[in-house]
Design goal:
single chain; about 300 residues; alpha+beta; 2 domains; 14 strands; about 30% strand; elongated
Length: about 300
Amino acid sequence: MEKRRSPLAAVLLSLLEPGLGQLYCGRPGWALFWWLLMLGGLGWFLVLFAGMESSLALAYYPSAAWLLAVWLGAAVQAGYLAAKAGQNFQLRFYHLARVYLLCWIAGLLLPVAGLVRLTRSYFLSSLVFLENTMLPELMPGDVLTIDRRSGTRRNLQRWQIAAVAGSGPASVSAWRVIGLVGERVELLADGLQLDGRKYPCQEGEERVFYYRDERGQWQEKKARECLLELEGRRIRWWLEPQARDRKIGAWQVGPGEILLSPDNLAAGEPRLYKKDQVLGRVIMVRISRDPRSRQWRPERRRLAVP
């Protein structure tokens, strides 16, 4: 059976998936070539982000540019091949709509879905944060993006926010790194002492925050602001309003350990964790919804966490 090839149809098929337009034009070799180039762009992102542990931006933008070039290049060539095909073009067994659909599913949807699932499962997860331990940096109802790469977990720095498993299967607890291996950290009623050097906090205003008790009921609790400066960073903590009620303690961070603390010390206290208990580093609030009012917080969408 003979039928001319439409350049428009070839371009549209290539925009659907690189290589489909070439297949439409009876060039399976070229179709395989463009499909492999597309897979190379997906694989390049995985190599840069997971293998070389580049930043998300350094992995995403080169891969996106590669894929854009592949998509456009495949579309241009497919239109050219269709225009060259004459009236004597012979239809093959693969010139069927169901074959194009199968190629699109197996060649594009499944690889992309696999890459997304692999990345979210092992390298860049999104989990719900429901606690008051990190006010005001993180809020209950934030959906946190967590960098779970091994290098990130191994090289956590002071003041970064680490994620550990929460009470639910899709929830997470978040704590700030305050103590590294070999350090002695003392939490005082009026500041922090690190290896014998004291860093006092400057007290500020009181505020009310809400928490859920063991029965699931919302309760009010007051806390006082405390501004702490250390290593060029200014951290805002929240303490019990009265100094006599504040949590104090001392911790020696041993090999393979890390000391994590809530910013809201009225709702929790520092804890020693093994590094292999840490899921990763919190890098962004993806979306946020107030669990009390059920209202979305658009101002926190895609909010970077330093």
